[in-house]
């Protein structure tokens, strides 16, 4: 079977909670009064669930009672697998979908998830994380977890190597190698989450917001599948071990194993926030997430098809406006944005670094990542029209940045028209002699 292409970040993370379909959105509006009543009722029941989980000792009885009470909150947990949990394994490896994955799996078996982010304290403890008191490097964390796992009386560790939640539908983030440096045998846990009406999780949402929406919807179903334990091969590096387990989990879930990381998710969300705050964003026939420029190392679409005349025409249009920008840089960015205006904006705002080209074909002495430096190659021959001096500092207001960008774009268009008129006017004059 032919392997499908790795999905981009816009498919791995949901940026919108509400559905786009008209019928589902209408059903959500009709359900809203019922959902609000459930939310209020479940908040009171949730307090009792928390108190019961704190009072009762860890064991089968507590897990059974809390699991039944969670069903009243709309959280249903199902488990399956060839042998269920392997009692000899001390490290579970699971994919990450919601903020409450560790709580759900702890309803099925005793396990601990170390707190990697956030300040330690009551909130960290109340959410079910284990505090190790390690604030240093990953090496110190691994050493602390090795010491924890060496005591057989401690519950197994539940780790999420993706280090960031996805929507669980398209692919897995690249697994970090440090969870596979603790012990030589791990047991993968495939986790799938489903709920009606709204998205399971939104990429930029906090855990408290997700908790409210979990109480609002009729139900959320967590399906946990225990896979056979996976031992480390002889002389296998932790990176290769992590990649092998990632591939096995991806096959079990029916998704793609990607090379995107949690840092790429943070960059993707930063671009989404930046673009959504720009007034009068450039229009395009593609969705917003598809127009965002991704680093070429993160997607396999950095190459440019020579036979595609449409992209060639778009590249020439950008080149006429920005003659000092290398054509290869323009083509690479166009392959990501598929929009002339967006590529021009990326080049003007310095989001795409490049070495400017002079008209004589020689490189300028220094690289440029901003418009002020990149325009120096053309200001000597033709002065750009401007009603006021160019802004030397980055404006704080999005409206001021947008107006400044539009002003510079108008100046560049005027300059390109004059260049075109001078070039073709000289050619016609030469032909008439």
From TrEMBL:
GO terms for biological process: ERAD pathway; lipid droplet formation; lipophagy; protein localization to lipid droplet; response to virus; retrograde protein transport, ER to cytosol. Residues 310-352 form the CUE domain. GO terms for cellular component: autophagosome; endoplasmic reticulum membrane; lipid droplet. Keywords: Endoplasmic reticulum, Lipid droplet, Membrane, Transmembrane, Transmembrane helix. The keyword Nucleotide-binding does not apply. One of its GO terms (molecular function) is ubiquitin binding. It is found in: Endoplasmic reticulum membrane; Lipid droplet. It is a peripheral membrane protein. The keyword Secreted does not apply. Gene3D superfamilies: DNA helicase RuvA subunit, C-terminal domain (1.10.8.10). Belongs to the AUP1 family. PANTHER family: ANCIENT UBIQUITOUS PROTEIN (PTHR15486), LIPID DROPLET-REGULATING VLDL ASSEMBLY FACTOR AUP1 (PTHR15486:SF96). This is Lipid droplet-regulating VLDL assembly factor AUP1. It comes from Gallus gallus.
């Amino acid at each position: 079977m032919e392997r499908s292409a790795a999905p981009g970040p816009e498919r791995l993370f949901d940026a919108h909670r509400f559905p786009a379909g008209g019928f589902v959105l209408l059903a959500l509006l009709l359900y809203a009064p019922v959902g609000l009543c459930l939310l209020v009722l479940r908040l009171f029941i949730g307090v009792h669930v928390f108190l019961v989980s704190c009072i009762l000792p860890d064991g089968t009885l507590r897990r059974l009672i809390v699991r039944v009470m969670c069903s009243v909150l709309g959280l249903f947990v199902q488990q399956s697998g060839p042998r269920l949990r392997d009692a000899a394994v001390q490290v579970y490896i699971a994919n990450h979908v919601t903020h409450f994955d560790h709580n759900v799996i702890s309803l099925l078996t005793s396990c601990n998830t170390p707190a990697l982010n956030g300040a330690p304290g009551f909130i960290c403890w109340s959410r079910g994380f284990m505090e190790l008191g390690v604030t240093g490097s990953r090496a110190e964390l691994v050493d602390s977890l090795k010491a924890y796992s060496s005591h057989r009386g401690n519950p197994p560790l539940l780790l999420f190597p993706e280090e960031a939640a996805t929507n669980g539908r398209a692919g897995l983030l690249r697994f970090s190698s440090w969870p596979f440096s603790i012990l030589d045998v791990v047991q993968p846990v495939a986790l799938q989450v489903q709920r009606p009406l709204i998205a399971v999780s939104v990429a930029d949402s906090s855990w408290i917001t997700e908790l409210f929406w979990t109480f609002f919807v009729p139900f959320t179903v967590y399906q946990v599948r225990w896979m056979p334990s996976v031992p480390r091969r002889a002389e296998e590096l932790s990176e290769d071990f992590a990649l092998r387990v990632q591939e096995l989990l991806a096959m079990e879930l029916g998704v793609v194993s990607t090379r995107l990381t949690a840092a790429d998710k943070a960059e993707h969300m930063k671009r989404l926030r930046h673009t959504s705050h720009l007034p009068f964003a450039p229009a395009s026939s593609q969705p917003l997430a598809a127009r965002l420029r991704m680093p070429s190392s993160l997607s396999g679409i950095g190459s440019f098809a020579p036979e595609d005349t449409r992209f060639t025409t778009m590249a020439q249009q950008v080149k006429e406006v920005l003659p000092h920008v290398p054509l290869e840089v323009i083509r690479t960015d166009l392959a990501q944005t598929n929009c002339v205006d967006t590529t021009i904006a990326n080049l003007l705002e310095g989001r795409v670094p490049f070495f400017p080209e002079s008209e004589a074909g020689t490189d300028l002495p220094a690289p440029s990542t901003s418009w002020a430096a990149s325009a120096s190659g053309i200001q000597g021959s033709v002065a750009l029209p401007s009603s006021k001096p160019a802004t030397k500092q980055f404006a704080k207001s999005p409206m001021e940045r947008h107006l400044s960008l539009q002003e510079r774009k108008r100046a560049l268009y005027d300059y390109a028209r004059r260049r075109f008129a001078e070039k073709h006017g000289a050619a016609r004059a030469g032909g008439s002699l």
